[in-house]
Each structure stands twice: as C-alpha cells, then as structure tokens.
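#struct-pred
JK: can someone run the complex with adenosine-5'-triphosphate? inputs below
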Amino acid sequence: MATVSITNLHKSFGRTSNPIRAVDGLSVDIANGEFFVILGPSGAGKTTTLKSVAGLVDIDEGTIDIGGRDVTRVEPYHRNVAMAFESYALYPQKTVRENLASPLKSGRTGQYTESQRAERIHQVTTTLGINHLLDRFPRELSNGQRQRVALGRVLVRPADIYLLDEPLSHLDAKLRAAMRAELKQLGAMSNTTTLYVTHDYQEALALGDRIAVMRKGRLVQIGTPADIWRRPADTFVARALGQPEINLLDGVVDDGRIRLGDGSFDVPIPADAHSDCSRGDRVRVGLRPCDIHVVGPDVDGAGIRGRVVLAERLGRNVELTVDAGGVQLIVLTSGRDGVTEGATVTLTVADSDIHVFAAGDGDTPRLGLPDRASLLEAAQ
Ligand code: ATP
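RT: done, structure tokens with the ligand placed:
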C-alpha cells in the first residue's frame, strides 16, 4: 500500500515545433488503499499518466511520488508497481498456471513458498473465474479469457500499487459487469492502492472511490462518483456520464425560471445556480434522460408538455424522443407506462436533477460552482 502524488506532470510526444501534449500539467494526490479511476475519451492522456507513474515514459516536467518517496528518476523495477495494459503479453509456451506463477518467482517476490504461491493463485483465479483454464495454453483461450489471465498475472503479484489500463475492455457486457463487482471486492480485500484507467463511465462510477475526468491531457474534474454524477463541472463531464447522453437545451432566465425551446415551457432555477442567474441571461440546461419522468398523458399544472415522436425499446428500458416546444428531449422510461408513438405526455424533473451551464458552443462550465482552479485544488 502507498500514496501516489502526481505533481504538475507534463509529457509531450513528437517534434518540438509541433508537440502532441499527452499530459498537460496534471496534479493529483491519491490516498493509501484508494481505488482511483481516471476516466476520459480516447487520447485524453490516461495511459500516458499511468505509464508515468510506472516509470515507462520519461516525463518532461513534474514529479511522481510513491509512498512519500520521490520516484521521478527511479527505474520502473524499483517502484514496486504492477501494471496491466489493455493488450497483454502472455508467455505462449507456458500454461495459464505457469503464466500466473512466474511473477511470483522473480525478484522480490521470489521468497514465496510453494503453498503461498498456490494460495495466491487460487484466490485470484477464483475471483477472475479462470480456475478451469489453468492447464490451457494462451493460444487455446478467447480474447476475453486471455485478458483475464493477464489481469491475474498482475493481481497475483503483491505490489504497493496496481496500475490497470482498461483491463476489462475485451469482455462482453455481462462478464464485464460481473468482473466489475469482483474487482471491487478484490480491491477492498487487498487494500492495495489502485489506479484504474477507463473510458467507460459505468465502470468508473461502479469502481472508483474517486474519479478524475481527463480531457486533452488536463484534469477537468475530480471527486467521488456521487459528486461527479450530481454536479458535473461542465458540459463535457455531463455528456461523458450517462447513456443516452444528457439533453442540453438552450434557455433564457426569466423570473425564477428558465424558459426553454420556443419559450412555451420552462424549468425552475435550481438552488445551486441561483447566484449565477440573472433575468435575461442565456444559459444551457442539462436534463438526464433517466431523470425525466412521464407523469401522465395530459396533467394540469406544472410539467413539460410534449408529443412522443419515437419510442424505441432498448433492453429493459424504452427510449422516448419527445417533441416539446420545438426541441427534442430524450427520455428513458421503464416502458411500463405503455406510452406509444404519437401520444401526448407530461414530463417532470426534480429541481435537484436540473443542471445549469453557461451558454455557448463547445464545452461550457456549470453555473454556481466556485471557479475551476479552486475546485480542483480543494478536491486534492
Ligand atoms: P486511449 O483511451 O485511446 O488509450 P488515452 O487517454 O490513454 O487514450 P494516451 O495513450 O495517453 O491517451 O495518448 C495521449 C495522446 O498522446 C494521444 O494523442 C496519443 O496519440 C499521443 N501519444 C501517446 N503515446 C505516444 C507515442 N509514443 N508517440 C506519439 N504520440 C503518442
């Protein structure tokens, strides 16, 4: 177990005249035993961050500190980290059992007795559901099985820190969900500080004690899953979490409310955005499809009236596209209300589920939050 501190990390690739800034001034402090998730789209700098902690890339600027020791110039082997990549190398001529045993035989882990090795391998293979594969060779495994064996190779090795880069990416959705639960348990059991990289928001929300959202090499938001889900710092984070994506509607502030669409419907200004909303201001309102509720066909009083233009069943849910005041809202329902295409519906959203962002194109910040820099600092 160890803390990890990344301070002002910079890493660029390519020519100095036109560098690719993979990581651009990243600072985070990770606690002892924490399961810390880095979430971001492709190219955000997640893998480069992980490799910097492992010592697999020479960083341009900044420091990496593990367990209170500055390891910025320390060789990977002496950092006592275990890293799993998305694409794994297994020894093709060794069985799964031998592949799993080899990290326990080398270097500082070589002191294990045969029975301790067997016990560790048993614990990890049970968790990963690969007990039945122990006598097979890598060529006799599916991609998903190979990925689990490779993850097993990392987890059998006691280390101060586990660095896991998209370790579940080759698994099908059902197995992924099951493995998520198992990994969470394993994390809690071993209490080893873990940095986990993913572009899958569900994985991040399910696994992370905290999540750092990265974009273009920079930290956008850091917090617990609940913080990030409930108060996304900008429209980028709001759009990154949730499927279908959050609805973003242009609006204008009126007396205590925000008029949306062609102005024929509105929502209240949520308490946290009040201080940043003045009459006449243009804003963007975020409403998650799962937070919009169909309360009936035509209900008097408050609510958003609309007409269902599309109803699509997606597994257990039905996704409705509702035309309201000239804009289209995506609404996720259980489908039990029997709403069909062409129906008139009344929709409601709880005040606490209304997100207000600054107006503009591209990504804009949430209103009512302290400024970004102090928010990131306070979270570390
Ligand atoms: P993904 O989810 O696709 O793995 P990522 O968030 O892990 O993406 P990185 O792999 O850290 O992103 O890459 C960040 C940026 O740095 C990308 O633009 C990538 O093309 C670039 N990059 C990474 N490694 C190298 C390299 N060895 N040489 C040149 N450019 C690189």
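RT: quick notes.
The chain has nine helices and 20 strands.
Residues 13-14, 20, 22, 40, 42-48, 199 surround adenosine-5'-triphosphate (CB under 6 Å).
JK: thanks, will look after standup
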